């Protein structure tokens, strides 16, 4: 005997996207109505926010100004670097000439054609210019290395303003509201002319092909349900197999919500909010005596049924102890034996009789 639990419910989308307003504004246009199919990049709402658009233009102007200041400073620094390199080259040239003169005077001194004083003066001048050339080269190198540091502040300012402009552009772009996924527009709870603030829900979009069943199971039966149990969902246009995906942790109005992931192909007319009936297989009982579920009686209760006797010509009232009660079957603990035939329909009209004749 397969013990089952039954419940009713609806088909619900597994993927629902709530689209909020990323910035405040006024609803200018509603381009799509609820229930319509929408594409991910399709504009469904148009908002306006003049202050935001003005802020975007102001941010762009500030960015252009900062970029111009950066380029101006960069050009000034490069000119200064060129001047320093030019000065270093001039000193280097003077040093080389002085060194040649000192070398010439040394040879003339050795030949006795120049005095010692002339040689020493030329040598001192060459050494002085050598020192000046080295210092000029170091100064030019240090200035070149400092240029990036001097530009860093302007670069940071430009980067900050670029980020602000991009942020403003993104917010302005989001005044054209798009669903972000292909699906069906389930809700559009705003009206043309309405003022909305950031965070206001503008629309809900669901994917109708990706559905699951949400069943309401009686609290007394829900305790037997576990994740992963097999289930079948009757859409009234076909039965689809599934598995228990989620069991709600709370009880509401005497029922527990149980989500069933569908594993089969849905009928053509399946859509969100379609009413369905579900059956969940909670246990398989071995070597069980059972009957179809009678019109009366709960699990672990005693009921009275009419059992056919005398070849089926009469029915005698007997007391029957029920065990587990499934969706369509009931376990028999006592009162009946294998092969007995009983009347399952309502026999309340014969409440005062223990034996009835079957005609």
Task: Please provide a brief summary of the model.
With 359 residues, the protein is of the alpha+beta class. It is 34% helix and 33% strand.
Q: Helix and strand layout, with pairings?
A:
Blueprint: E1 2-13, E2 16-20, E3 25-30, E4 37-38, E5 45-48, H1 50-110, H2 116-173, E6 176-177, E7 183-187, E8 195-196, E9 201-206, E10 211-218, H3 219-222, E11 230-234, E12 239-247, E13 255-262, E14 275-284, E15 290-292, E16 302-309, E17 314-325, E18 329-334, E19 342-343, E20 355-357
Antiparallel strand pairs: 1-10, 1-14, 2-9, 3-5, 3-8, 4-7, 5-6, 7-9, 10-13, 11-12, 11-14, 12-13, 15-18, 16-17, 16-19, 17-18, 17-20
Can you characterise this structure?
This protein is an alpha+beta fold and 359 residues long. It folds into 4 domains: 2-13 and 209-284, Efflux pump adaptor protein, beta barrel domain (Elongation Factor Tu (Ef-tu), domain 3, Beta Barrel); 18-47 and 176-206, Beta Barrel (OB fold (Dihydrolipoamide Acetyltransferase, E2P)), CATH 2.40.50; 51-173; 290-357, no CATH class. It is 34% helix and 33% strand. The protein has helices at 50-110, 116-173, 219-222; strands spanning 2-13, 16-20, 25-30, 37-38, 45-48, 176-177, 183-187, 195-196, 201-206, 211-218, 230-234, 239-247, 255-262, 275-284, 290-292, 302-309, 314-325, 329-334, 342-343, 355-357. A 6-stranded antiparallel beta barrel has the order 1-10-13-12-11-14. Strands 15, 16, 17, 18, 19 and 20 form a 6-stranded antiparallel beta sheet that branches. Strand 17 (314-325) and strand 18 (329-334) form a beta hairpin. The radius of gyration is 46 Å and the shape is elongated. The relative contact order is 0.18. The mean pLDDT is 89.
